[in-house]
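dude i think i finally got it to work??
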Amino acid sequence: MRIRDHVDADWGQVWPIVEGVITAGDTFPYDPAWPAGVAREVWVERPPGRTSVAVDDDGVVLGTAKMGANRPGPGSHVATASFMVAVGARGRGVGRALCEEALDWARRRGFAAMQFNAVVETNAAAVRLYRRLGFTVVGTVPESFTHPTLGRVGLHVMHRFL
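look at this
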């Protein structure tokens, strides 16, 4: 597996991953009714942000990430990132590789920290991974995400210095 910048030709493989994640409705606060064009506008970052893909040796996209400044102006020294992994590639280290690469990207660009604004508290795999990579939960916004089977659950704000 290698991680590289997203190019326009990747969207045909990235969209099914994004669509599957948002349609499942259990890990991302994105609208499942979004058409591909809207999802692309939200997911594919414009420079100086970045969107990347993890691909296997055959060029199959296994996962994708987006990253950039968490906020403009006085908050621009803190990065943020989001990750999605194809269902068939989960449990194979794709998410970890994408997150580690996003952290490296942020360091190289001089960010002081990385913050995730909305990690669904019941997304145990993501919370566990982020903790292992040095993130801490700095707060949880109660009942701010409607999970399709669990009802209203909290969203963690997670942070780590770089």
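The first strand starts at residue 2 and ends at 5.
im so relieved honestly
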